[in-house]
Amino acid sequence: MESETIISKQFYSTDKTNKKEHTLQSSIFKINQESSKISIDKTSNSLPIFVLIGTFAVLFAGAFLVYKFQSDFEQFQLERIESMIGFPFLILATILFLFKAGVFLYKSFLYFKYKPIESVSDDLLPTCTVIVPAYNEGKLVWDTLLSLADSDYPQEKMQLLAIDDGSKDDTWYWIQQAKIKLGDRLSIYQQPQNKGKRHALYRGFKLGTGEIFVTVDSDSIVKKDTLRNLVSPFVNNEKCGAVAGNVHVLNNKKAMLPKMLNVSFVMSFEFVRSAESVLGSVMCTPGALAAYRNTSVFACLEEWINQTFMGEPSDIGEDRAMTNMILKQGYKVLFQRNSVVLTNVPEEYTGLYKMFIRWGRSNVRENLMMAKYVFKNFRTESKLGTRILYLDQTAKIIMSFPFLIFMFFFIATHPLLFFSSTLLSILIISSFSAFFYGKKHGFSESIWAYSYSVFYTFSLFWITPYAIVTAHKKGWLTRGLSEKKIEEYVTLEQYSQIAK
């Protein structure tokens, strides 16, 4: 049996050398934290106000130009109809629009049918293994582990595991500190080298003894009732194989991008996944917070850890892959709106597009995998809704290149018509997201839905096409240490040498 990592008492002794080391550690961690605060405090000035004002100025200008150039739009439509390529494309675009509109109405209908499952009593709660894989998260992992330990969940029924995936920063130190504070409630392990999140989770699954496995990202904070709400569906529904948590943005007060993403996340989870949950077909259980029945995990665990794409081991999309394999077994995958986790998201453009590329590649890979079973008899209940959801996702992937080509053609031939029509579309479509967020969480932040749509449309439109052509590429993209952090960080191995 694999033994738990033991923390050396000597490291925490009170001799002079260790006092120097501890002082040095504290100084370095303090520098890192203060530097971090300075780098992320981007909303202390008036820039967000100017961005919001600029957003609406641009959107209303676009709406005015559509009205102003109405005759030009009519002429453009006539040219398309008379064109050998334009007319078939117009028919295809119309069909796709009607399909997307129909799917949206269908999801709206399902959304109003959705109700989260209420928490069951302590006696009925199953045993639960919570796995926290960590890589280069620093003190964030400490906050994550303490929030989990503070959960309103019977201690005797919860096993908490933290697994450091060969971090290059002070993550292991903070995991050890959490162990000191929580004692036997927390078991900690360290991978001999960085092997990727999938392998860290695999080790956790192998070590876990709970009836339910819960995975939580090491930069996330859960609320007190999150865990019990998350696992309750397994008690009420024996066909439930996995449950997705409700992800909100933790750092949405620190920068503009998190503010925008917070609105987007609410739409993605509280609207889209609510609809998917009614069909028992949530397409992806998020890495930030997800729960799995242990039997459903063990039934596909070896296939999951050995998954390949185009002959190479899969090192991304472990959450979507696990969800896919559980759906394939005939289990239902649900969503719990009342199970909230707050997670950190990128605050700069570079980190954001890398995250989206990773998600996009995973989406391409897993849609191909899903095609192998979704039109077969993979479950006894109705499969029509699941197939509609799949076709909706696939249509977005397939049509990304044709619409990219059309976009560049439209810009080259009629730039004013393109920008004005696009901005009017954003104004109309984003109003739903803004209203949905505002009704749920207040209208003061909901207007960021418009800024996010403008930002995504004009700076991230290339993500899906790029993800398609690079779907074979490996790499997490956002897991490494930044150059700034590397310069500030001093490894634990160097502490004793510097102290001397």
UniProtKB/TrEMBL annotation:
GO terms for biological process: extracellular matrix assembly; hyaluronan biosynthetic process. It is found in: Cell membrane. One of its GO terms (molecular function) is hyaluronan synthase activity. It comes from the Bacteria. GO terms for cellular component: plasma membrane. InterPro entries: Nucleotide-diphossugar_trans (IPR029044). Its main location: membrane. Gene3D superfamilies: Spore Coat Polysaccharide Biosynthesis Protein SpsA, Chain A. The chain crosses the membrane at residues 47-67, 87-106, 388-411, 449-469. This is Glycosyl transferase family 2. It comes from Flavobacterium hydrophilum. The lineage of its organism: Bacteria, Pseudomonadati, Bacteroidota, Flavobacteriia, Flavobacteriales.
